[in-house]
Write a structure and sequence with these properties.
Blueprint (H helix, E strand, L loop, with lengths): L12 E4 L3 H14 L5 E4 L2 H13 L6 E4 L8 H10 L8 E5 L4 H9 L4 E4 L4 H18 L13
Parallel strand pairs: 1-2, 1-3, 3-4, 4-5
Helix pairs in contact: 1-5, 2-3
Keywords: Phosphoprotein
Organism: Noviherbaspirillum album
Protein name: Response regulator
C-alpha cells in the first residue's frame, strides 16, 4: 500500500487507482492545479477498504475519494457499496474517476450513492482543469456533513 500518513484533522484525498500512469497523472495534475491536500494512494479495492476502515476507526476519513471503477480484487462499485454501508463513512464524498461511460456503470454508481461520476480526460491539461474544479468544489466550497467529522468547511 502506498498510503501516506496525514496529520490529524488535515483534509486529504484518497485516490483508488491501479494504473501507475494514471496515479502519476492525477498527482501531477493536482499539484499543477494548486490542490495542496495530501493524496493517499491505494492500488486495489481491498486496499481501499482496509485504508478506509482504519481511517473511520481513527476518525480521520479522507475529505474526498477519487475511485476508479476497474480495480483488481474488488471493483470500484463494490468499494462504493462498502463505503455507503459503513456507518462512519456513509456521508463520505465519493467521485468515480474512470474511463468507462457505459450507461450500466454510470447508473449503478449513482444507484449505490456516488456523489459524482467523472470520465478521465485524455490530456494532462484537461485532467488538471477537471481536478482543479473538483478540488475547489469538494475541498474548499463543500460543507462537510457532520457525519464526516466536525462539519467544518474544507
Amino acid at each position: 500500500m502506498n498510503a501516506t500518513a496525514t496529520a490529524a484533522g488535515s483534509p486529504h484525498i484518497l485516490l483508488v487507482e491501479d494504473n501507475e500512469d494514471d496515479v502519476i497523472l492525477v498527482q501531477r495534475s493536482l499539484r499543477k492545479a494548486g490542490v495542496t491536500a495530501p493524496v493517499n494512494v491505494v492500488r486495489d479495492g481491498d486496499e481501499a477498504i482496509t485504508f478506509l476502515g482504519g481511517a473511520a476507526d481513527a476518525a480521520q476519513p479522507p475529505a474526498l475519494v477519487l475511485l476508479d471503477l476497474k480495480l483488481p480484487r474488488r471493483n470500484g462499485l463494490e468499494v462504493l457499496a462498502w463505503i455507503r454501508a459503513h456507518p462512519g463513512l456513509s456521508a463520505l464524498p465519493v467521485v468515480m474517476f474512470t474511463t468507462s461511460t457505459q450507461d450500466a456503470d454510470v447508473g449503478e454508481a449513482y444507484r449505490l450513492g456516488a456523489n459524482s461520476y467523472l470520465k478521465k480526460p485524455a490530456t494532462m491539461q484537461e485532467t488538471t482543469e477537471l481536478l482543479r474544479t473538483t478540488g475547489l468544489y469538494w475541498l474548499v466550497h463543500n460543507v462537510r456533513s457532520p457525519a464526516q467529522g466536525n462539519g467544518e468547511r474544507r
